[in-house]
Amino acid sequence: KPGRSACEVTKHVDSCRRCDPDLEKNRKKLSDCVLGFAHGTTDGKGGEFYVVIDPIDNATDPKPETLCHAVT
Questions:
Q1: What is the pTM (predicted TM-score) of this model?
Q2: What's the rounded Cα separation, in Å, for the pair 44 and 28?
Q3: Residue pair 68/54 in contact by the 8 Å Cβ criterion
Q4: CA 6 to CA 51: how far, in whole Å?
Q5: pLDDT tens digits for 2-54?
Q6: Quick one: three-class SS letters along 1-41?
């Protein structure tokens, strides 16, 4: 919106997301900003990224590079 700075914090996660100019280099930092039910979880924080490049999912026979394959 006009008049807002790029780093204006309107939600808690904004302090980690919008205000970090190096977020592209360290997306796992977002796990430090978790609130609520997932607060304190760390599984996967040190793991590799899974890149979804195929938007077509088949839940019964998921193929690699799809979201369904990532969560099975």
A1: 0.40
A2: 9
A3: no
A4: 27
A5: 555 667 777 776 777 777 778 778 777 777 777 777 677 766 677 777 778 88
A6: CCCCCCCCCCCCCHHHHCCCCCHHHCHHHHHHHCCHHHCCC
Q: What tokens does 71 get? A: 């969560």
Q: How far apart are CA 17 and CA 2, in angstroms?
A: 19
Q: Give the model's pLDDT for residue 56.
A: 84
d(CA 28, CA 63): 25
| Token pair recorded at residue 63 | 């193929």
Structure tokens at 40: 């304190």
The tokens of 32 are what? 């430090």
